[in-house]
Amino acid sequence: ISGTAIVTVVVDDGYGGVALISFEVTVTNVVPDLVDIVASATTVDDASEDGTVTLTGSIQDLGLDTHVVTVNWGDGTVENVSVDQLADTFRGSHEYANGGLYSVVVSATDSNGASSGEYTFDAFVEGIGIVDGTLYIIGTNGRDDVKLKLDQKKNRLTVDAKFGQDRGHGRPGCGDDNRRDREKDRIKLTTTASDIERIVAFLRDGDDKYDGGGSDGGYGHGHQDADRINIRQLIFGGNGNDDLSGGRWMDAIFGGAGRDKIDGKDGNDILIGGEGRDYLKGGRGKDLLIGGLLGKDFSDGAFLDDIDAAMVEWASGNIADTLNSLGSIVDDNTADSLVGERKKDTLFPGVRDRWHR
After folding, report:
1. Helix, strand, or coil (residue 306)
2. DSSP H helical segments within the chain, as ranges?
3. 21 contacts 7 by C-beta, under 8 angstroms
4. DSSP readout, 313-353?
5. Most buried one in 92, 249, 254, 270, CB count within 10 A?
């Protein structure tokens, strides 16, 4: 209840004596709060395998209001979820049609129209999907094999992925042309290349292979060409012995734990070996090679904006600001191999690393 009311108090002594007093009372509605929220698939390690994300929580409100809880699932679906009005609890679930990283927003509104603050969390779903101009590739905890091809003339980007080759599981993808081979857990997506601003791949655990469509020759060098479609790639190998190669423009490639082979190919790239004995090759362009790992944990998507900022700074030749965005460098104390090319690369080897430019 919210508003102003006149309250009158009457006192009768039982012998004919009556007294009364009236006064104004203003009641202000209390805004509800969302508490004890638990959601599934909030980290890349816990990515949803079947596309379903669940949500539970409680509503804290000093009043006796009823409530509506609204969830924006981040894929264009906005809905009211089930609320137990007596217990002030809620629950909901959503099945995503495509893989990707989705920003989910939850809010509550009481019967007086007051709204809670928004609660936001990330939802990771295995497979391939396009969300707000980013093409996401969310791998499995098995062996994944992903290959990209960019056709400049036809303005076409094709992703051919075989997920969970040692697990027997896959997720559907999306795009203008989407085909799936169920026996091989294969997703093939073809979409308009100019609609994609960046590619973000979380390959997760397993001995994965990623081919970003780059080459050891031809154009590239990290320069923006108005006549070409340039798509930056952020690639996270995860745990396992991964074979990762970049595309024809700027890439940031993180090997993760394991014995990884990382090749930047074309463009001005940032290559991070991670824990384990890794081989890093810069390729064409001006590249930054770090044999160890970073103080920030970039593996769960929490700092994608920082990586984007680092890529912009690196492309402009600002090493100090690049390292400021990436964070501190930590030596993993293993014997990595760092191979620069054309004497344009910047190398940060550890004490046991072998390197040459």
Report:
1. helix
2. 304-315, 319-326
3. no
4. HHHTT-HHHHHHHH--EE---S--EEE--TT--EEE--TT-
5. 249
pLDDT tens-digit series, residues 65-112: 899 999 999 999 999 999 999 999 999 999 999 999 999 999 999 998
Question: Does domain 33-124 bear CATH number 2.60.40.10?
Answer: yes
User: Which SS3 state, helix, strand or coil, does residue 30 take?
Assistant: coil
Quote the pLDDT of residue 219: 47
- Closest alpha carbon to 9 in 18, 21, 23: 21
Beta-sheet pairing, 279-281 with 261-263: parallel
Residue-averaged pLDDT of the chain: 90
Separation CA 101–CA 60 (nearest Å): 29
State how far the Cα of 262 lies from the Cα of 90, in Å rounded to an integer.
46
Other Cβ atoms within 10 Å of 240 Cβ, number: 22
Radius of gyration of the chain (CA): 27
Q: HEC states along 64-80?
A: CCCEEEEEECCCCCEEE
Q: Name the helix (H) or strand (E) containing 59.
A: strand 52-60
Model pLDDT, residue 341: 79
Confidence tier at 277 by pLDDT (50, 70, 90): very high
What is the residue extent of each domain of the chain? 33-124, 126-356
pTM (predicted TM-score): 0.87
Token pair, residue 351, equals 């004490």
Give me the pLDDT at residue 226, please. Answer: 52
